[in-house]
Amino acid sequence: MKRKRLFSLTLVIAIVITLIACSIKADTPEFLAKEGIIPYELSESEKYILQSFGMEGNSQIISFHAPKEAITLNVNVYKLENGVSWSSIGGGAVSIGTERDPVEQLTGTFTMQLKENYAIDFNINASGRASYKTDEIILDTETMASTKSFLQEFQKIQINKEIPVALMVYDNGTSMKSYSLQDYFAPSKFDGMDLVQVVTVTFTDKEL
What we know:
By secondary structure, this protein is an alpha+beta fold. The chain has helices at 2-26, 44-52; strands at residues 36-39, 59-65, 72-81, 85-95, 107-114, 120-125, 129-133, 145-150, 163-171, 195-204. It is built from two helices and ten strands; from the N terminus they run αβαβββββββββ.
């Protein structure tokens, strides 16, 4: 049953990605003409699919239009260690290379899905699709409180600078402070939390 459910979740993500790819080809959304990243505006049918599978609060789709000098998109997933520093636990990248083949500019969508075992699946769709996932995380205590923050508005892209797009905080207490994506740059704010994860994207002018 569990394997069947995982298959279903993977299938629905694939369906949504396909719908988005088709819509981008058929009618490029207005915001893609502007260099930056922004949450993808779901159609009512796409929202219904995510809601039907209970994935609306645990997934996000981001559209990106990189500056002309960018040739590589790096995705990094971090876990906070000892409340002071970030440790990489996964990631992936796509690149159009210096020859800019098969496209001239790096544009597309980035999707992520948070799993119950604290693993994260994500896909990059940019003239081809690349899929990655992080390993599950086993905690010593049961988490009772959590907060999740995703990118909510348009943001400009600065070459070679990380942009936090998702933040997940878990704790075994009964209350939780509010956090913002920008708290990624001040990890001490998460002192005392059992598990903190961050997903960032970086557009670079360097090849893989």
